[in-house]
Amino acid sequence: MADIILVPTSHVAEESMKLVEAVIRREKPDCVAVELDMNRLIAMEQGGGSPWQALRHLGPWTFSMFFVMKKVQTWIGKKTGIMPGSEMLRAVRVSEHHGIHVELIDQDLGITMERMRRISWREKAKLVFFLLKGLSVDRFASGAGKQVKLDLRKSLPAEVVDEIISIMRKEFPGMYRVLVTERNRHMARRLLMLSGRFGRIVAVTGAAHSPGLRDMLNQKRI
Fold first, then answer.
1. Alpha helices in 28-104 (DSSP H)
2. Structural domain count, the chain
3. Rounded distance, CA 28 to CA 95, Å?
4. Rounded CA gap, 125 and 121, in Å?
5. How would you class 42 by CB atoms within 10 Å of its CB: exposed for 0-12, middle for 13-18, buried for 19 or more?
6. pTM
7. What is the pLDDT of residues 130-145, one digit of tens each?
């Protein structure tokens, strides 16, 4: 099996962009795999798609959920000066500059959106309310009730990532299954397939994916 180096990132952190570039330059991999599909890559390069088309395709509850999630990410991105997903684009551009093969390993966005439509409207409404209720974007309340100050320019501490994953799994099981578990399974399959072609792979994924993805790759449980 190839040497697969997972690089967990925060989609709006300047530190993640620097980390991605540093790891690629240091490791000199045969392949860089990124948590994107072709649709998302094109949309990011072109500045996004039509919201009305998304509304027709997703329906009001799923669209509202995605709309609020995107607005939160964009708002945080403006505070940090880094637009969501910039570290993925940086990984692609740095790899292309050094002549390194790039693979897009995420599940097709259309499939993920279709799976999201099947989640109950109650869970979607609960998530929208949860986001609008106003989690402070520079603070995080741990399970013990402790307020943790966050530096949005840096990647989230591992304990905060674990806490967020735990909350999502417990409070939003449908979302967690579709947005994390199913996509982890898809990415693990892609990485295992790529391991037969390349000797050294750097895989750039969001921090929430890294623990589960690492377990699947170690156990080949996909």
1. 38-46, 51-58, 60-80, 86-97
2. 1
3. 9
4. 6
5. exposed
6. 0.78
7. 776 655 454 545 455 5
